[in-house]
Amino acid sequence: MRPYPLMILLALAVPAAAVALPVDLPALAAKAARRFPQPIRAGDLVGRRLLEPEERQAVLGRVRGAVRRADGGVDLTVETGWFSGRAVLVPTEAVGLLGEHVALLDLTPEQLQTLPEAGPAAAIPPDETIRVGLVKPFH
Q1: pLDDT grade for 83, boundaries at 50, 70 and 90
Q2: Position 112 in a domain
Q3: Contacts of residue 78, Cβ cutoff 8 Å, sequence gap at least 6
Q4: Which residues neighbour 83 within 8 Å (Cβ) at sequence distance 6 or greater?
Q5: Please, which residues bridge with residue 74 across strands?
Q6: Do the domain assignments include residue 7?
Q7: What is the overall mean pLDDT for the chain?
Q8: Binning pLDDT at 50, 70 and 90, where does residue 12 land?
Q9: Quick one: CA dihedral 97, 115, 12, 14, positive or negative?
Q10: Contacts of 110 (CB under 8 A, 6+ apart)
């Protein structure tokens, strides 16, 4: 596992199991810091659609919850297959709030499929506040 610095996107919860990500988390964190991270209750993200960051805004999955990484960062548990039920851990550094949706910003849909599968990690309580950046509409 590569060590990751503690990100500015904070939430307090029981640490989740550490999983090496196939993405450059420090680079994602630098981009995420420029998106004006906003406080949001973890439970308010549940059920939101994860959209592709293009004008057509294809739905890539649905948020099922949030978990804490060993480095203190937060991953969203996203169900990516409508029928397969496959859930992956998406770093909050790679997404942004887009109205009632969540947009996948710094990863491609192909990279989304390579992210670690969500396991039996301790979920962040629904009433706990985390920080996620804002994005403007793609069209």
Answers
A1: low
A2: yes
A3: 50, 60, 61, 62, 63, 64, 87, 88, 89, 90, 112, 118
A4: none
A5: 68
A6: no
A7: 78
A8: very low
A9: positive
A10: none
∠ CA 65-19-14, nearest 5°, is 50
User: What is the pLDDT at residue 18?
Assistant: 41
pTM of the model: 0.75
Rounded Cα–Cα distance for residues 4 and 24 (Å): 10
- CATH code, domain with 64: 2.30.30.240
pLDDT at 107 exceeding the cut of 50: yes
Distances (CA, A) of 121 to 11, 32, 130: 15, 24, 17
Q: How many domains does the chain have?
A: 1
* Calpha distance 14→101 (Å, rounded): 26
Q: Per the domain annotation, does 49 fall within a domain?
A: yes
Lookup result for tokens 């309580």 = 125
Whole-number Cα distances in Å, 120 to 10, 60, 80: 21, 22, 17
Q: Phi first, then psi: what are they for 44, rounded to 5°? A: -75, -10
What residue numbers bound the domain in which 96 lies? 25-132
pLDDT at 71 (0 to 100): 85
> Residue 75 forms beta bridges with which residues?
67, 91
Is residue 5 included in any domain, yes or no? no
